[in-house]
Specification:
about 300 residues; alpha/beta; Arc Repressor Mutant, subunit A; D-Maltodextrin-Binding Protein, domain 2; five-stranded mixed β-sheet; 10 helices; about 35% helix
């Protein structure tokens, strides 16, 4: 039996975890055909089929599952051994891949990315921003960013920022026509601008005051996945908008929008960087964790 190539073993593990050649390829920055060829070489070298392939899915065979079970920790050890060399550098090198929600990419990371990369010139930061809640490890990321209610229980979580806040607002002209709402349920009789996630779900407006939580799904003239379109529509008086305070800040500061229901929008816990517990943490990830912890001494 020919000796398998380590790179082909690594490719097989990536495809098995992602259950997709395309998904694994995106996470690794290579073409699906190159991964397919690597798995084919490995199967030829071992003389056994490792993956069942259909037009809709890719799943390990029994032999593939057995190989992956033993292979995953061995590959982690190899990666850890290679990464240990980083300890002897003045600053770590390598690529750090993060999967984050769009709101975090827009409102939180801009203040972090520049200072982090300047402090770590040997690191390349690759950020995928999306609102689908994917398995970040299967997608090829080293870590992810999520809010507390979305964190997986077996992950280690580190606060990425301080508290955040939702805010509801409308244009001065809109409030002059319709009056200022005093309770969240007043919005049910008013046109509202609503946001649709890439998953297809339309956001529910949620308000809280003195332990009372009110969730509403009002009607309105615009449903969009574009924050820019939603802001413009709200500024033009087409409806009430509710979103992260940071998204509305410039419009509020310029007087194009006026905050409403302020006492119904308390702060909530900000996002967390999360990653799996492992013996050998990649040096770029360790550097990023140390960096965000140093920015927030209280954490």
């Amino acid at each position: 039996m020919a000796s398998p190539d380590l790179a082909d073993l690594d490719a097989f593990a990536a495809v098995s975890r992602a259950r997709s050649f395309r998904g694994a390829a995106v996470g690794r920055g290579v073409s699906p055909s190159s991964l397919s060829e690597a798995v084919r070489r490995l199967e030829t070298a071992l003389g056994v089929r490792l993956l069942n392939r259909t037009t809709r899915s890719v799943t390990p065979t029994e032999a593939g599952e057995r190989l992956l079970e033993r292979l995953a920790p061995a590959l982690a050890d190899v990666a850890g051994a290679l990464d240990a060399v980083n300890q002897f550098r003045d600053s770590p090198t390598g690529t750090l891949k993060l999967n984050v929600p769009i709101v975090v990419a827009r409102l939180v990371l801009p203040d972090i990315v520049g200072p982090f990369l300047k402090a770590n010139p040997g690191i390349t930061l690759e950020i995928t921003a999306e609102d689908n809640f994917v398995d970040v490890l299967a997608a090829g990321a080293d870590a992810g960013v999520r809010y507390g209610e979305r964190l997986e229980k077996d992950m280690i979580a580190v606060p990425l920022s301080g508290p955040q806040r939702y805010q509801a607002a409308a244009s001065p002209a809109f409030l002059a026509r319709h009056g200022t709402p005093r309770h969240p349920r007043d919005l049910l009789s008013l046109p509202c601008i609503r946001h649709r996630f890439s998953s297809g779900a339309i956001i529910v407006m949620e308000f809280e005051k003195d332990g009372e939580i009110v969730r509403i799904a009002p009607d309105g003239p615009l449903i969009s996945s574009s924050m820019e379109l939603e802001l413009r529509a709200a500024e033009e008086g087409l409806g009430v908008i509710a979103s992260f305070e940071g998204f509305l800040a410039a419009s509020v500061a310029a007087g194009r929008l006026v905050p409403i229901l302020e006492d119904w929008n308390p702060p909530f816990e900000g996002p967390f960087l999360y990653y799996p517990s492992r013996r050998h943490m990649p040096a770029p990830l360790r550097a990023f964790i140390d960096f965000i912890r140093a920015r927030r001494p209280e954490s």
